[in-house]
Amino acid sequence: MNASPGRPLRTVVAGTNFGRFYIDAVREHPDFELAGILAKGSSQSRQTAERLGVPCCTGVDELPDDIDVACVVVPSAVMGGSGTELSQALLHRGVHVLQEHPLHPDELSDTLRIARKRKLQYRVNTHYVHVEPVRVFLEAARRLRARQRVLYVDAASPVHVLAPLIDILGRALGGLRPWHLGDVAAVGEEVLAASDGRTPVRTLHGALAGAPLTLRVQNQIHPGDRDNHALFWHRVAIATEGGVLTLADTHGPVLWHPRMHSPRDDGHRLVFRSGPGAQWLELPTHSVVGDPAQDPHSFDGVFSDLWPSAVTDALSALRDAIGEGADVLRTAQHDLTVFHVWRDLMARLGPPELIRPPAPTPLAVTDLTVSGTGGSGERRGRGPVQGGAPAGAEGDVPGAGYTQPAEFFDLGAREHTDRTGPAVVASLAGIDPKAGPLLDIGAGSGLVTRRIAAAYPDCRIVAAEPSPGMRAILTSRLAEDPGIGERVTVLPDAANDLVLPDRICGAVACGMLGHLDPDRRRALLRDLADRLAPGAPLVVELMGLYTPVSMPATRLRQATLGGLRYEWWMAGEPAGEELMCLETTWRVFDGTRLVREVRDVYHWHTVTLERIAEEAGLALEAPPPPHGAAVPHLGVLRGAERPSVTR
C-alpha cells in the first residue's frame, strides 16, 4: 500500500533490541510516523509500546490496515531467526519493508521477487555504510578512484558484521566484480605453540573489483552475547600511487597518508628538503579527512547519535524509492553481489569459534599516557609495585583490585560497614519482595549483604561479586546461616555482565560505581532504573571522591589480630578529568618489624551522587533519619512512577 500524499509513512518496527535505534530514527524522521511495535510480546516490548503510545502487535494479522512501512530488525533465516519469513509476510500484506542484514542470497532473491510482484519496495540495510565516518570514507574513496587506480586493499572485521564490510568495500571500490577469494591461511604449529593456541584473527587473500585484497577476520562469537567481544570493528586501507586512505574504525577517524617519496638529485642522492621537483615534501605525513576539529564520538554518542542517524539515512533512501516506484530487482543487484561474496567468505572461514571470555576492560587514552607510570613497571617516586598490578592493567579488571587484599578486607571495612549497614537496611524499607529479587552489586565479602538478608527475611537476593577472593568470603559468610543461604544467590559477574531480571524490588551498589567508566556506569544505571518496581529504591554509596585530587599516603585503618598488627594505607593522584589513580597498601607488622606488604593500583572514576541520580533518571533522597549525617556519601535513588526506558 502507498501513503497518501502529504502524510508521513505509518511505520511499525519489528524487534526491540537493535530495533530501538530504528524506533528512535522513525520517531525523529519527518516523513515517517511510528504506528506500532511488532514483537513476541515480551514485557520489554509491551512496556516500550506503552511508553510510546503505540500498539504492541504479536502477529502480522494484528497490524492496522493503514501501515505503509515495516522495519524488520529480527535475525534472518540464515542467522536462525524469522526475519525473512516476517518480511515476506509483510510484503504479502502490502507493506514496504526495510530489513536488517545479513541474508542468504537465496532469501534475498525470493523476497525481492515477492516485492516486485506486489509492486512494493524492499531494501536490506547493512547499516554501517550509513554511519557518518564511513560515509566520509566512501566519498573520499570515490574522489581518490577518480584520480588514481587502486593498487591494494587491506581490510579487517569481526565476523558478526562481515556482510557490512563487504558492502563498504564494494561502495569504496565502485563495485565488487570481478571478485575472487582464496582459502584461509593455515596457522602453523610453531605459531600455535608460541601463542598458546590463541589465533582469534584469520587471514585470507583475494581480489575485489580487480584490486588485490588482504582480509583479516576475527572469526569468534560469544554464543550468549553475539553483539559483544569484538577485538576491533571495520578497518579499511586503500592504497594508490599517491597515498593510503584509511578508515581506522567504523566510527572514525578517516585518515590520509600521502606517499613518502624522496627524489634524487644529480648525484643520485636522496633529496630531504622541499623545493622544485620535491614540493610534496611539505605535505603533512597524515591528515584527518572531513572536519578535523570535530571531537571524537563517545560510545554513548555512537548509540544516541551516529547509529540512529545512520538508520535515518536508510529510511530516507527507502522513502525515495517508494516515491520513485523503483524496480527492486534492478536496484538490488549490488546487494545480491554483497551477499554472494559474504556467503562464499563465510564458507571459507568455517563456523566461528565459540568463546566465552569475561567482559573486557576498555582503556582510556589516559591509561596509556599517565605521567606517573613508567615503562619499566615502576611508579615514579614510589618504587616498584609489589604484590599488585600497575594502573590500567590487572588492577582495572573487574574484581582484580580486591583479589590480593581480600584476606585483609574485613579488618578494614567492618568498622565502616557497622555505620553504613544500618543505613542501607533502613533505606530499603518498604521494598516489596513479591516484585522480584533484590540486587546487591559488588557485594564484596558480604558484610552488608548479610545485614540486608537478616532484616528482610521474605526477600530473595542476588549478590554479585567478581573477585574470587572476596566471593569466597561472601559465600562462606552466607552459608553460616541456612535461613539466609537458601535465599541469597551468589554470582561471579561484574556489574555490566549481569543478566538483570525483568523486575527487581530494589538494588544496592555500595562502593563500586567508581570502578566503571562513565559509559558503562550510565548503561548500568539505566538498566537498573528500567527494572525497578514502582517506588523501589536504588541505594548507592560512593567513596567521597567527587573530583580528582592529589591525596598523599594516608592511613585509613589499623587492626590487631593475634600477635600481628595490620595497617591500611591509601594514596591517589589525578589521572584525567574525572579519573584518579589510587594505590592501596596493606602492611603487616610483628611488633615494629614489617613482615608483609601487599599493594594494589587501580583507577577510580570520580562522580557525585547528584550526577548518579541524573544519569539514572531517578530522584535523589537522603537516607532516612538518623543515618544521613553518619553516612554523607550514601544516597537513595527512587522513581515513583517512572516509565521504562528503551535506549
From TrEMBL:
Chain positions covered by the region annotation Disordered: 371-396
InterPro entries xref list: Gfo/Idh/MocA-like_OxRdtase_N, Gfo/Idh/MocA_Oxidoreductases, Irp3-like_C, Methyltransf_25, NAD(P)-bd_dom_sf, SAM-dependent_MTases_sf, Thiazolinyl_imide_reductase
SUPFAM superfamilies: NAD(P)-binding Rossmann-fold domains (SSF51735), S-adenosyl-L-methionine-dependent methyltransferases (SSF53335)
Domain of life of the source: Bacteria
Start and end residues of each Thiazolinyl imine reductase-like C-terminal domain: 157-256
Residue span(s) of domain Gfo/Idh/MocA-like oxidoreductase N-terminal: 10-125
Chain ranges of the Methyltransferase domain: 439-535
NCBIfam families listed in its UniProt record: thiaz-red
Protein name per UniProt: Gfo/Idh/MocA family oxidoreductase
